[in-house]
Specification:
The chain is an alpha+beta fold. It has 1 helix and 11 strands.
Length: 163
């Protein structure tokens, strides 16, 4: 009997994960705009202090969403960034386009309606940490990059067109 309860509890948890992943997928499919902020923190030597806003061109390929971010920074520089979000039944993988290919950076699972980062990403001499959250129809994605010269906080807020 107790084993059946554990099994049912696990099934319910998996249902929540699946529903959470599908909700994120549906929200991300409607993303059109973004706000961006890069901030060098106290131990940084990089001076990455920019803000900007822009558009997102989204391309769907089955369970992959490709984002082409075009951001106009506050110093009038146009910044283009490519990302891919790969949706699985129990997790979401985040890829960043670098070195002429999409490289996996993070993997997020969903538990109790929160996104859990599986592990940090190491790109010597730097270490990347990520966070993902949703509020209504907005996606909040942050990266913290730490290394010998870096202590950076990158924040993205993704929004649908209606905002």
């Amino acid at each position: 009997m107790e084993e059946n309860l554990k099994e049912e509890s696990k099934k319910e948890e998996n249902k929540k994960i699946d529903i959470g992943i599908m909700t994120v997928f549906k929200i991300m499919k409607n993303i059109k705009k973004l706000y961006f902020k890069a901030q060098s923190l106290s131990n940084s030597q990089m001076d990455w202090n920019y803000m900007g806003s822009g558009t997102v061109t989204m391309t769907l390929d089955y369970n992959k969403l490709y984002f082409l971010d075009e951001i106009l920074l506050d110093n009038n520089t146009r910044y283009i960034d490519k990302k891919m979000w790969y949706f699985h039944d129990s997790h979401i993988e985040f890829y960043h386009f670098r070195n002429e290919k999409y490289e996996k950076i993070f993997e997020f699972s969903v538990k109790n309606n929160k996104f859990i980062l599986k592990e940090k990403y190491e790109c010597q001499p730097d270490v990347y940490y990520g966070a993902l959250s949703i509020l209504e129809d907005k996606i909040f994605f942050t990266m913290n990059i730490r290394g010998m010269r870096k202590d950076e906080l990158l924040e993205y807020i993704y929004l649908p067109d209606e905002i």
